[in-house]
Amino acid sequence: MPERADVYFTSGADRVSAWLYRPTGSGPSPLLVMAHGLGAVRTMRLDAYAERFCAAGYACLVFDYRNFGDSEGQPRQLLDIGMELADWAAAVAYAHTLDGIDRDRIGLWGTSFAGGHVIATAARVPGIAAVVAQCPFTDGIAAVRAINPGTVARLTALAIRDVVGAVARRPPVLVPTVGKPGEVAVMTAPDAYEGYLKLVPKGVELRNEIAARIAMKVLTYRPGRLAAKVRCPILFCVCETDSVAPAGPTLRYAAKAPRGEVKVYPEGHFAIYVDDAFERAVADQIAFLNKHLKSG
Questions:
Q1: pLDDT of residue 117
Q2: Count of Cβ atoms closer than 10 Å to residue 248 Cβ
Q3: What does the UniProt keyword field contain (predicted)?
Q4: Is the pLDDT of residue 140 over 70?
Q5: Which domains are seen in the chain, by residue range?
Q6: What whole-number distance in Å separates Cα of residue 284 and Cα of residue 267?
């Protein structure tokens, strides 16, 4: 097993928890900063990815966002897009302070909602050497259009209640992050509930809930529009039948990235994390990283 240590860095006023994987070998290592998607935490199979990358010679810094998982932050389960982007910037800054890391070869790896965050971060934070965006959320309008209109209406009502409650300093109105079709949840595609559960380690209970106000913010978050400003190599791993982050807009945004590369998989949003699809995606990602991060 690769060497893994628990480390911490500060974002805002809170301590962010992370794993630091270090590869064997001498000399400064390239490093990937990694985090998960909407409402998800690093124990949901990000260790499987980091172990593969570490075995291939990459250090990995895998963190939980503030308000989630093992990181500090209140109120719990509150997803704030601006805060999460600040966490990415803080993680990159922390990576630059680590011994044994080649500061000119720091890359980003994000999946789902974080697939959008890494596009935005690479466009705004200087010095990123390469990016992997897996089944990335690139366009809030397209994502909302993929949801049942009745579910959207019920979510919106809860989101408004949550926003009003926040002004009065009441605790967040929580809704399930993922549910079955017809239920009120942020993700209710036919493959969402079972697919999400496959990412949760056996015997571990994770909170399947998130502050409802995110439903008001998702629509205006369109990080794919920043792909044209990403100057480093970026790999888009796109799922053809993605029910959460539709492939069409992502492919259009990817075409505008100056050094964009695309791999397309005949799977849905959650299938890419497990089994044969995981093996194929990781192999493609390592090949991309070897091409762009192995040498200075």
A1: 98
A2: 12
A3: Hydrolase
A4: yes
A5: 3-138+223-294 (3.40.50.1820)
A6: 15
